[in-house]
Amino acid sequence: MKFVEELVVEEFLPTVRSMLATDLRERGFTQREVADALGISQSAVSKYAHGDVATSERFSEDERVQSLVERIGEGLSTGDMSRVQALIELEVLIRRLENGDSLAERHREVMPELREYDASFDVHDPESGARTTEQVRSSVRRGLRILRNTSAFASLVPNVGSNLVECLPEATDVEDVAGVPGRIFDVRGTATVPSDPEFGVSEHVAAVLLSAREAGAPVRGAVNIRYDSALVDGLRDAGYPTVEFDADREDSGGDATRETIVEAVRAADPGSPFVLYQTGGFGIEPITYVLADDAPAAARVVRDQT
């Protein structure tokens, strides 16, 4: 894991300091005056002068960096610019380069995982989409840990497999829902999670979650388990609202499941968490869904009822 701040310290600042040291020396500054202006030691200035400090052409050849170095050098030499102003100007440029620019691109080179996000995202932005998506993935991981540590969960996995999902706050389609690629299966009494959560990999459970949200349910997480009337009764007795829908309703548009879920949930107005289920149909396995505020909350409902 490499922080963009490390790249600033290791690559950007040595380059800019070297450029500034050269600029100030050419303006007649002594080694001591350069050291005082830049807030570094004379020995450091000497190393810059002799090329003993590694610099980056990516930044030294950037016209914006060159222009700012020249402006700071001139300002410091004439006294028109204070060290504080020089610092602020450099900080502003650093933030600009970190936000979808050359520092951000360099960050992607050393952290290739960042390339999946839009090039304009700001790694420091607390409201960035990247941060939100990673928080959702993390939430699904926490929920999966709860399920894996629930010894009875494997016995609740239906024949079609289970999935635990969570959606983004403003989710509109399955691409906005994170889940387990390939689903969770019971392998010799152990719930097996094949790989790390990803977005857009769950069609069925994600669609159920989105349908419930379309009906107004305040939920972002869901897990499917096998249908068992005693289990549904137990969940109802524990205080969780239960909503049944007809999975076998015919519809010429091919969207019967979504419509029946929306109708059933809208009529029940269950809040969160709640239990949604269907008792099967021709070629359709009966399934129970637990929907909650997020993936860990849905997983805890399952854990507490087994």
UniProtKB/TrEMBL annotation:
Organism: Haloplanus vescus
CDD domains in UniProt: HTH_XRE
Name this protein carries in UniProt: HTH cro/C1-type domain-containing protein
Top-level taxon of origin: Archaea
InterPro entries: Aldolase_II/adducin_N_sf, Cro/C1-type_HTH, Lambda_DNA-bd_dom_sf, ThiN
Domain HTH cro/C1-type: 26-48
GO MF, one example: DNA binding
